[in-house]
Each structure stands twice: as C-alpha cells, then as structure tokens.
Design goal:
This protein has about 300 residues and is an alpha/beta fold. It has two domains: about 5-260, Spore Coat Polysaccharide Biosynthesis Protein SpsA, Chain A (Alpha-Beta Complex); about 265-295, no CATH class. About 35% of the residues lie in helices and about 25% in strands. It contains eleven helices and 13 strands. The longest helix is centred in the C-terminal third of the chain and has 14 residues, at about 265-275. Keywords: Nucleotidyltransferase, Transferase. Its EC number is 2.7.7.9. One of its GO terms (molecular function) is nucleotidyltransferase activity.
C-alpha cells in the first residue's frame, strides 16, 4: 500500500556513547546488525509501510549514513562483472528503498528538537517518527497498524509496550483508558522516565510515533524537560489532554522488537535475527546449542 500523504522522520543525530570506541568514527546507526546497518532496517520498515519520502536527522560526523543510501556505480559494476547477482541486489536495494533526504540537527537538544527540525520538510503532511534504537521485526508490521489508527482518528498515535515495572524509568510511560478495539488504547497522559512508584502504568512508549504538523507549534514553545532536553513526550502530553483535539491513541505492541541501544541487547538482536534467517540459521542454531551447553 502506498501512503503518499505521509512522510517519515528518522532522528539519527545521537553520539552513541554507549558503544565507544566503536562509535568514535562510525555513527551508531551504521553499526551492523548481521549484515545490514541498523538504520537500514528502520528505512525498510517505513518503506514496507508504504512511505516513500523519508527525512533523516543527522548530526556531525554522520556522512556515512548518507553515503550508505547513495548508489555506488563502481561497486555495482564490479559485482555485475563478477556475476555476483545476490550481493549486487542487496547493494542496489539500499539506494532504491525510498526518496531519502537529510538535514542536520545542529545543537543536540533532545528528541523533541530533532523532530522540530523536520518542520520545513514535513510541511502539512502527517508523518511517522521512527527511532533507530528500536528495530521492529518485519513479520510484525507495527507501523502499518499505527497508520491505520491515525487514518481512523486523525490524531497522534504512539507505540506502547508492556515492560517490567522496574524498567519503566528507562522510557516514557503512558496513562491509558481502554477502547472497544483490541490492542488500542486512548492515552490520557504521558510522563518521561518516571520513577517506578510514580509511573502511571507499565506501558512504555517505544520508538514509533505517527504525528500531525500541529505538534510543531507545541514543540516551538516547549521548554527543556527531563535531562534538560526538549522532550517529545511533553508535547504529546499536551495533545493528549487537549479537550478540543483528536487526542492520542496507543497501539500496544506484542510482536518481536530488538533493542539495539544497549550493548547486551544489541548482541541479542544480532543472534535472534541471524538464527531466524534461512541462510544462517541452520548452521548457527546447532552451534549456539553446543556453545550454551558448555558455558
């Protein structure tokens, strides 16, 4: 399905300090997850949902991200001459996924500020925001469900995940009301990284949003919040409590998600995705069983 009225925004300006020294010269978004950089999974997710116009918000020393989605004629010719059609197909795919644009964030002032930098490109279009730390398995089309919900309500939509209450302080947390639709809730409030005892629920906001351009006016006047940064959660809180607006809906996600923002979870993501692949799994799974039995 083509979603030509939508655009996608991928904030990719973070420093990746948890992965130093690997990210000293390489953007964290370019760290490989099996044999593709993490950000390619995110671009593919947007493209598979039918979004063809994608804006990546980059920071200093992020040129490798832009280079990855460019065509490389000399490499393509060499692979073609060698008859390596499979690798040629994979190389060409990364530059044919969508119409990809780039803008610099400038001073990093938080996720809300990064989203605000997309204003000129987004214009009057509804848009999706996809964070690169959360990889969503393409067998569990979360973004498609969120776009469908936006079509129904016209309001903002966030992705929610039930987490251990002891971990809710790592996320934005949502207060919700049930609806008559399975897996869909109405969000009545949001709190950024609350203490466990202060969290309104154990429903964490994960890195997928569908927003309307009205959020930009709110972000313009939103001051620094948690961590001294401009928080997208604070703007969503205003949308959720606006009695005259369409509100904020939540899609509760129960599919496969891979967190690549943490070193241990990043390794788990590689193992999980590799063992599921037809070309790698048959050899990897027996080795993993033998390895696990000997530790």
């Amino acid at each position: 399905m083509h979603r030509s009225r939508y655009k996608a925004v991928i904030p990719a300006a973070g420093l990746g300090t948890r992965f130093l020294p690997a990210t000293k010269a390489m953007p964290k978004e370019m760290l490989p997850v099996v044999d593709k950089p993490a950000i390619q999974y995110v671009v593919e997710e947007a493209a598979h949902a039918g979004i063809e116009d994608i804006l990546v918000i980059i920071g200093r020393n992020k040129n490798a991200v832009a280079n990855h989605f460019d065509s490389v004629p000399e490499l393509e010719v060499k692979l073609k001459d060698k008859g390596d059609e499979e690798r040629l197909r994979r190389v060409v795919k990364s530059s044919d996924l969508a119409d990809i644009h780039f803008v610099r964030q400038g001073e990093p002032k938080g996720l809300g500020h990064a989203v605000l930098r997309a204003r000129a490109h987004v214009g009057s279009s509804p848009f999706a925001v996809l964070l690169g730390d959360d990889l969503i398995d393409d067998r569990d089309p979360l973004l498609t469900a969120m776009l469908d919900e936006h079509e129904r309500t016209g309001g903002a939509v966030v992705a929610l995940l039930e987490v251990d209450p002891d971990h809710i302080h790592l996320y934005g947390a949502a207060a919700v009301e049930d609806t008559d639709r399975e897996g869909i809730v109405r969000v009545t409030g949001l709190v950024e990284k609350p203490k466990a005892e202060e969290a309104p629920s154990n429903l964490a906001i994960i890195g997928r949003y569908v927003l309307t351009p009205e959020v930009f006016d709110i972000l313009e006047r939103t001051g620094p919040g948690k961590g001294g940064e401009i928080q997208l959660t604070d703007a969503l809180q205003e949308l959720a409590t606006d009695p005259d607006g369409p509100g904020v809906s939540g899609v509760i996600f129960r599919g496969r998600r891979y967190d690549t923002g943490d070193r241990v979870d990043y390794i788990k993501a590689i193992v999980q995705l590799a063992t599921d692949r037809e070309d790698l799994g048959p050899e990897l799974r027996p080795w993993l069983k033998e390895f696990a039995a000997n530790i």
